[in-house]
Write a structure and sequence with these properties.
The protein is an alpha/beta fold. The protein folds into 2 domains: about 170 residues, Aspartate Aminotransferase, domain 1 (Alpha-Beta Complex); about 250 residues, Type I PLP-dependent aspartate aminotransferase-like (Major domain) (Aspartate Aminotransferase, domain 2, 3-Layer(aba) Sandwich). Helices cover about 40% and strands about 15% of the residues. The strands form 3 sheets. A 7-stranded mixed beta sheet has the order 4-10-9-8-7-5-6, sandwiched between helices. The protein is globular, with a radius of gyration of 21 Å. The two termini are about 30 Å apart. Bound molecules: pyridoxal-5'-phosphate. The site of pyridoxal-5'-phosphate has 15 residues, from helix 4. Belongs to the class-III pyridoxal-phosphate-dependent aminotransferase family. HemL subfamily. Homodimer.
Amino acid sequence: MSDAPRSAELFARAQRVIPGGVNSPVRAFRAVGGTPRFMVSGQGPYLTDADGHTYVDLVASWGPMIHGHAHPQIVAAVQQAATSGLSFGTPTIGEIELAEELIGKLATAAQAHGTTSPLEEVRLVNSGTEATMSAVRLAKGVTGRRKIVKFAGCYHGHVDALLASAGSGVITFATPDTPGVTSAQAAETIVVPYNDLAAVEAAFAADGPDIAAVITEAAAGNMGAIAPKPGFNAGLREITERHGALLIMDEVMTGFRVSAAGWYGLDPVAADLFTFGKVMSGGLPAAAFGGRREIMASLSPAGPVYQAGTLSGNPVAVAAGLASLRLATPEVYVTLDATARRIGALATQALAEAGVAHRVQYAGNLFSVFFTDQDVTDFAGAQAAETFRYGPFFHAMLNAGVYLPPSAFEAWFVGAAHDDRALEIIAAALPAAARAAAAAARPGAA
Ligand SMILES: Cc1ncc(COP(=O)(O)O)c(C=O)c1O
């Protein structure tokens, strides 16, 4: 299956008209080498490429597809919405329903934990990037302060101020400070190690009166899967509150995936603002940010902080998101958790048998493999792993019909449609992939 002539031909054609041939860098396979596969269809846990090869998909469109591809009820909801009109640029009923659904999910989790939900109002946008960008602007507007604290290796989308030492594509392409982000913008961002409350305290000791907000991934998924240490998110809440800064919990990746209420459902830390995307969109472009009423009331037109969007709350995207969230029963989360653990255990078994030092790490049902014998708690640890083993591992899996994230720094995503057959294909693929990882040559080695 290493042969993908049609994808190769399409990639050559794409590179003539699209920078690097892709519309988001990690898709280009540069971290693993080889030809990116052009997918033509998806069904349940499978993707089919332009050469007719079928893969078990462990990327899930980078998170959204918790019910698998082309789920009939989501497709039907989209078709029905599309028939009624694609976009109006007016308020619609679906937007209220989606906002109520998001707020309701966190309220249910808050109640179960004997607390009240910090999510009272949400604004719909089109992408996770737009959600974090808007949340940061709102935090700066509300506090009248100009600086943001973020964590090395956490990725919050390609927002200028947040592209300092960011994860994912930026790690992959080794451009920690991308050209185009000015030094003035970067100077407003303080980057500290993940899981390090002392570093956050030090940042506030140095710059406290200027810090508008701390933004964190609710659990890190963009440098591989790294859960916050127990008490880390709560510690951020305490420090920010003490200094009059806001806490922005980025749940774009974890939201409505790791539990019905995202990471908040597992660890109910009352952030001031939350950002959501991916699962809440059902696979179409939709995202959101929200928080307590008194903060959201500063947003235009209720308040002075401007934010807008021609396609925000698009009726078709809203219909997909609503259908996806309504299908997400408690059983779905039991399945996602169990499937993640089963695949993680299979990876551990194969890598142990091949003698490859590794850690399979989980953040809820997000997980990833680090080629190291140390637990990984931050970006420095993720970078210290033997990432050169990932390319051969990835390609052996691909050749055996398993589509993994094409970068060692990405989480693996499962869906509720991953059944026994899909797991058998993964189990059959892993031993050879583990041997390929074992045989991988360290760069620069003779
Ligand atoms: C935690 C997190 N925040 C924000 C984003 C940006 O979302 P989008 O790619 O929809 O702009 C991502 C994307 O992967 C993410 O993982």
